[in-house]
Amino acid sequence: MAKQFDVVVIGAGPGGYIAAIRAAQLGLSTACIDDWKNKKGGPAPGGTCTNVGCIPSKALLQSTENFEHAGHGFADHGIEIQGLSLNIAQMQARKEKVVSQNNEGILYLFKKNKVSFFHGAAAFVKSSEDGYHISVNGDKAETIIGKHIVVATGSVPRNLPGVEFDEKLILSNTGALAIDAVPKRLGIIGAGVIGLEMGSVWRRAGANVTILEALPTFLGAVDEQIAKEAEKLFRKQSLDIRLGVKLGTITTNKNGVKLEYTDSEGKAEVAEFDKLIVSIGRLPNTSGLNADGIGLQLDERGFIAVDGDCRTKLPNVWAVGDVVRGPMLAHKAEEEGVAVAERIAGQHGHVNFNTIPWVIYTSPEIAWVGKTEQELKREGVQYKAGVFPFAANGRARALGDTTGMVKFLADAKTDEILGIHIIGPLASELIAEAVVAMEFRASSEDIARICHAHPSLAETTKEAALAVEKRSLNY
Ligand code: FAD
Ligand code: NAI
């Protein structure tokens, strides 16, 4: 017999599981269906983010950053280490433990909030002229009916035409996170977020990393001044970044991967790698839903078509996260999940796309919110800029990490903050103050007048705000 719920969520990534929890908190009977399997075939809720995205990548970034500090940074503190080595099997085992702790945590949260969890693949099944139900094809077949359906099926890695992922030589994010021995020569296609994070992990572990990027500019979406600084620092770390390349044939053999390409000057080149990571963006995941069968409309790029409130063209069917337009970020998916659950409950959920922060977890980290300087120029907005370097911050010196800067962009007339851009230590944490400031439509003077603890990295934010009026105190 069909099981009935007020809300049925398909997908338990950050968009789906958060939508389900919020709906249950609001008193709605809620089910969440997810097909991800752990190594034993059991449920592994959390989606891409928990299983092969945000969480495992940050675990490996932390392990390899510790290794790098132990190898280079610690000597400066008088900490001498002999016979340093990196045990990749142990590093991967730790990563897997972190992932499974998160999987277990979500299962616990479902129980705590009385969300009914179904492990299996969900599809829409047409059952009458304008009716449908959800079938779950898991250990046990189930039929589920929901007054509201929230689709949160996420995204999948995009492959190069004709070059399939085998996860041994040609790796997507899944294979890139599971490498079991440091490759001598690691190639990466795409100098985007995954390319830079995974490149950093395996470079720190000892690989020679070459990143081939089609575009002629490095990190085009990032503020130009910050991107320039990042490019300089990454090259200094010996990430071999080649911009403006055009890929030719890619073949695999028992020794690895052979890749033909032309460089930015049109010169033909051949490169050979032990492994190749392909990180050229991700595609919305709607396969298996039977979207066509019930008339769930996709846009021209394959995303589920939604309005500003995440409503699809079908009544009471919503979609959130990577499967709809907008940045493919876990926190964007979560915010949409909460907003949709609240709308279903008759409230007025809202997601402010202007204040969604971005973070790239390289070393140094890069984080930003709001407009870049080049965007403001393009849009003809009159603005003031203030920059403060970490080199002038006492806490950064004590930490032994003085790379980078904080940059404020504020409206020339009103002083409202339009964008904040950070490259430097713990930029991922510092950006939270910037987001709060922008969400409350603060002026740069508001931040400049707030007391910040000393010594702290956060003082760079205050000083950059002061720099907007050319009155930094420590620079
Ligand atoms: P997903 O997390 O993809 O979850 C969708 C879930 O639905 C999956 O479990 C999937 O198996 C399931 N599903 C799909 N179809 C069905 C079906 N028919 N039936 C049942 N279940 C189904 N973002 C950040 O904000 N910060 C980061 O640091 C970060 N790091 C990343 C690192 C990597 C390597 C990658 C690849 C991504 C990273 N992201 C990061 C992006 C982030 O992972 C995604 O934006 C986020 O996971 C999207 O959440 P979602 O809920 O929309 O989809
Ligand atoms: P991306 O969009 O960040 O970068 C892809 C890069 O590949 C671009 O620079 C693009 O120009 C390049 N490219 C595309 N086709 C190419 C080709 N044929 N040859 C050479 N270069 C080519 O995508 P990526 O890195 O795959 O990540 C996917 C998404 O996952 C990100 O956009 C982001 O939304 C999310 N993510 C977020 C993270 C974070 O928040 N820290 C970490 C990792 C991923």
TrEMBL record:
Cellular location(s): Cytoplasm
Keywords for this protein: Cytoplasm, FAD, Flavoprotein, NAD, Oxidoreductase, Redox-active center
Gene transcribed to yield this protein: lpdA
FAD/NAD(P)-binding domain sequence ranges: 5-337
Coiled coil: none
Cofactor: how bound: Binds 1 FAD per subunit.
Miscellaneous note of the record: The active site is a redox-active disulfide bond.
Main location: cytoplasm
Name of the molecule in the record: Dihydrolipoyl dehydrogenase
UniProt GO molecular function: dihydrolipoyl dehydrogenase (NADH) activity
Cofactor(s) for this UniProt protein: FAD
